[in-house]
Write a structure and sequence with these properties.
Layout: H1 2-14, E1 30-33, E2 44-49, E3 53-59, E4 64-69, E5 79-85, E6 92-98, E7 101-106, H2 108-112, E8 117-120, E9 125-130, E10 140-149, H3 165-174, E11 177-187, E12 196-208, E13 214-216, E14 226-233, E15 245-252, E16 255-258, H4 264-277
Parallel strand pairs: 1-3, 2-4
Antiparallel strand pairs: 3-10, 4-9, 5-8, 5-10, 6-7, 6-9, 11-12, 11-15, 12-14, 13-14, 15-16
Length: 287
């Protein structure tokens, strides 16, 4: 990557943009082709994306592409970016660039496995470096990206640590879903990332949800009335049982990921203490 470090230095200091740069009409997604870039493959093509989510397709990768995420959001200081490659993505390595330094975010092998990687927007720009290939046909580097604020529930999806009291209270306010229930079963998904498992939840009460994470299970009064599936890291070792939890989490590329999930009795203790002290960031009906 030494050659690219020198090229980056030249590009960043001189602010030279490749004349063949292609921009999407909606500034959320970009599709470009290395065939138009092949004659000057040592140039770093600049791409600017200004949405909270979108996608990128680089056909027949040659040379390199710098993807600058410049979202039209109130503040970008605490933004977190997640990248989900297509399983047929190949032909380039996805790196992070900051001040001329490069580090690997997704290798070609990790892209083929469908690995999702997240990073802080402050860590740098996405840098796509094409692999050296004599035949670039049938090679496409493609991924989706999604931005979220670091203080939302999504920050807990990559960690198995228990949430602190303040994190838990904020998670109740900012999560894409909040529900009360139990773990019904844990399933291995052969088609999913080997680092995660699917957890089927039986829910007695839904406080908030987006995109129908939980659907009716037909239960009556006093029984579980909703069911849903969430994702969690395998190393978190989720177990089925009768214990009742408060489940919170975030939607990532259409999948529901579990965030803070304390025992319901522990949540009540924290919530009631904050309510008595007047420090609750928001309220829910716990009756």
């Amino acid at each position: 990557m030494g050659v690219w470090r020198m090229l980056l230095s030249l590009v960043l200091s001189a602010v030279v943009l490749c004349g063949c740069a292609q921009y999407s009409s909606d500034q959320c997604s970009w599709t470009g082709s290395g065939l138009t870039h092949e004659s000057h493959a040592r140039d770093v093509e600049q791409v600017y994306l200004r949405c909270a989510e979108g996608s990128l397709q680089w056909l027949y990768p040659t040379g390199a592409v710098m993807v600058n995420l410049r979202p039209n959001l109130p503040s970008s200081a605490d933004l977190r970016v997640c990248v989900k490659p297509r399983r047929d993505s190949r032909g380039a390595t996805v790196l992070l660039e900051r001040a001329g330094a490069l580090r690997v975010l997704l290798s070609e092998e990790e892209q083929a496995a469908g690995r999702v990687r997240c990073f802080s927007l402050q860590e740098g720009a996405l840098f796509l470096e094409a692999s050296v290939q004599r035949d670039i046909s049938r090679r496409i580097t493609a991924f989706q990206y999604q931005l979220s604020y670091a203080h939302t529930a999504d920050q807990h999806t990559d960690s198995c640590r228990p949430c602190a009291d303040e994190e838990l209270l904020l998670s109740v306010c900012t999560s894409d879903f909040v529900a009360r229930g139990r773990i019904s079963r844990v399933e291995d998904d052969d088609d999913a990332d080997e680092d995660r498992v699917s957890v089927v939840l039986s829910i007695s009460r839904v406080y908030r949800q987006k995109s129908r994470v939980f659907v009716s299970a037909g239960g009556g009064r006093g029984r579980d009335r909703w069911t849903g599936r969430v994702q969690i890291l395998q190393r978190c070792d989720p177990r089925a049982g009768h214990a009742e939890f408060l489940f919170t989490g975030a939607l990532r590329f259409g999948d529901a990921w579990l965030g803070c999930a304390p025992l319901y009795t522990d949540f009540l203790r924290v919530y009631q203490a904050a309510r008595d002290a007047g420090t609750n960031p928001c309220t829910i009906n716990t009756d």
